[in-house]
Every structure is written in structure tokens, then in C-alpha cells.
Amino acid sequence: MSKFTMRVLVTNPELIPLFAMTATVCCMAGSYIYYMAAKKPDIQVNRWNNKLSAPWDVVDPTQKQKLMTVSQKYNPDMKLHQLRREINYAYAPNK
């Protein structure tokens, strides 16, 4: 297989659009990566010295974290309970 030279493009002009599109796509992909890294605030490039990190990224391992409430008191909504009862009676088969 021969190396790529300008002579290949001169002898095979049908390859010019292929190489042009490949170069264009590579440039666009590189510019998109640069845009995402430089302009988007949700990307962290420096993980070890980032002063503006989100609060869930910095968790103190000595502090207890509440993940779930086990004994939560349930207070039923009486209007909702009444509405459910009316709907059940409306769609119940007549006996």
C-alpha cells in the first residue's frame, strides 16, 4: 500500500471529496469538543482543584447523611379518600 501523497489525489480525483469531507468532519468534531470543554458549566476539567463544584460532589465522610426517612408519619387527605370512595362506588357493578 502506498503512502498518501498529493500524487494520489492528482491521479485519483474521485478521492478529493472523500478526503475533504473527512477533514471537515474531524475539524467539526474537534471544535465541538473544545466548545463543550470551554463553554459548558457542567463539565469539570480539573477534578482535584475545582472550587465551583456541586454540593453533592463534596461529601464529608465523617458527617452522617440522611438518605431515607423510615418512620415517616402518613396523614391521609380526607378529600382524596372521599373522591376515591365515590369513584369506586360509581364503577362498582350493581348487585
TrEMBL record:
Give the matching Pfam families: B12D (PF06522)
Stretches that traverse the bilayer: 15-37
What are the alphabetically sorted keywords of the record? Membrane, Transmembrane, Transmembrane helix
Entry superkingdom: Eukaryota
Keyword Transmembrane helix in record? yes
**InterPro entries assigned:** B12D
Q: What is this protein called?
A: Normal mucosa of esophagus-specific gene 1 protein-like
